[in-house]
Task: structure prediction
Amino acid sequence: MIKYIISVFTVLIAVFTSAQNDIERTPENLTAKVLELIDALDRKYVEPVDREKLIKDFTSGVQNRLVPFHSYISSDLWKPNSSQELAGIGFSFKFKNDTILVEEVLEGSGADQSGIRKGDKIIKIGDKKVSDFNYFNDVANVLVGEENSQLVLTLADTTDTSLIITKNVIRINVPGTSFFKLGHTVSTIKEAIELGSLLYQDSVSNLKITETGIRYMLEQLDPHTAYISAEDLEDMSAPLKGSFTGVGVRFQIVKDTIVVVEAIPGGPSAKVGIQPGDKYVYIEEENVAGVGVKNSGVRDRLLGDKGTKVAVKMKRAGSKELLDFTIVRDKIPIYSVDAAYMVNESIGYVKVNKFSATTVREVQKALLDLKSQGMKDLVLDLQDNGGGYLRAAIGLADEFIKQNNLVVYTEGRAYPKREYGTRGRGSLEEGRLIVLVNQNSASASEIVSGAIQDWDRGLIVGRRTFGKGLVQNPTNFSDGSQVRITTQHYYTPAGRCIQKPYDKGIQEYRREKYNRYESGEYFHKDSIKFDESLKVFTKIKGRAVYGGGGIMPDVFVPIDTTGTSDYASKLLRKGILNRFSLTWVNSNRSKLQEKYITFKKFDEKFKIEKLTKGLTKYAEEEGLVFNEAQFKEAEDLIHIRLKASVAQNLFNFSRFYEVFNDLNIPLQEAVKILETGELFKMLEKE
Result:
């Protein structure tokens, strides 16, 4: 009886929640949500906003959810409030990257009259290449124009793509239909949501339509103001909080089988005895072996609330029977320090992958351990570190920079200047310091490297950083979603604005790193041109440094594109090398553990050459044909990556970097700089 009451209660709660969601997601309530967001932007955004433009961008952005469509709808279903002085060309299409593919052609439309048919591939619209477009509605907006105006389309012949066809298409209105253009003939938030719901009532909810419009609207402001749905918010927050709730394993899917790479030490799975190499066969009586489960599907089944249980059955090498485990989910740490070890007798190395709530504690622990091993100098690796919490960046800088010194300050239209500085004695205020950065080092990484450079505390080595210096503050909605609004800019102690320009739009902003590559910046320091008006000087030695986007290193290290090949890239990109390594280690784990009791012995004695023969054979079984010339071209890369992967699977994740860093050219350069000591004279006090 009790179970029945609980069951009925659960159903009632579900019905109530569903009804509540339906109420919250009506066009009226969603309109209120968008207006609430616009009010927040009006108050907080780093620059003044145009409310009318925001509404127009929202309604135009809704168009990105209506895929495919051709801007025409039966007059019986909808009539526009405004006159139809605009018209389209009358076809629906799919748009992805460099392809516009015609889906359907409206009978009697300009496209129909010009002979455009389903399956045609558009390669140019007017003078714009398809690659010039970023969004579906960017394409749609170019197709629309004044009624009876003409548009030139360039198509690839469907039978011979080397042939190019040009067609002149007239924009006309089609009898029996109404033409709409979101942001023009449809110009209100509510009307855009309602029209989207009308067109896609069976497959797209009002909430999804609204979220699409919001995302587009925000991207017209800057690249980092962002909307996060309730579903995505928890997943995005977990890495920065430093933990998530689950069973505590790193896994890999090998031939439709979920294989444990590592049971995280101290985690729930390790506590019940799950080991590397164990394979999931059942999760809660559901067969998950050989059924094509994806990474997201594994996470959905294993993640859950703290204290809840999950029953699994595992296959272990050497055991004929499946092993039963009941795992109690708990908080699982997400570490931000990937590796910490001694490069030689006096130089320590610490790699930080993100700035989370636990980063400072992790680094403090690593530095204490390295000091006990004789560390005098440190290489801090922030390459490919995309940032994280501001407080973590300030706290990390505090470990290296003396007390009561400015680390960073922020300033915005609605926010006064605020300074953040060091407070206590750090773990490594003495000793030589080198920070490694590259084009993917962003935000918090730039705060730390900028402060260290401005205070002449250490040398920055590598390539110019990303240039992300916009501060986002969260605004939460009652439905659990969130908008992170850009409210301020970051400035280094010397007054440099870290943020690179974004006034040419989101697409050009995203291309900027590629443009750096094309301009030669990744290869030659002289390719970088500085704006003399943005020159400032470091706080102690008065060295010239420049604002305008990113932190320029003191010692430039070009990107290394030698020693690789297409064959090697495919081994890595397709996951073949990692799968082979995991499979091989699992098959030989006992022997390997007996032979290589310590990592040091493994590093010194393990021979990789014979194992690569097994890798190339495995790759052929996976469909990658062996290419001897390309293998020879990238032999060192393949050997080191394979040995690093074996070290990771046999020992732990940190050991991967101790092997892999033989390929870390900026690290090798940093060690040379520390060993010679010559370049540090620029930082010495007079």
In short: Residues 606 and 618 are 20 Å apart (CA to CA). The domain at 337-556 is CATH 3.90.226.10 (2-enoyl-CoA Hydratase; Chain A, domain 1). The chain has five domains: 1-68+186-221, 85-172, 244-333, 337-556, 566-651.
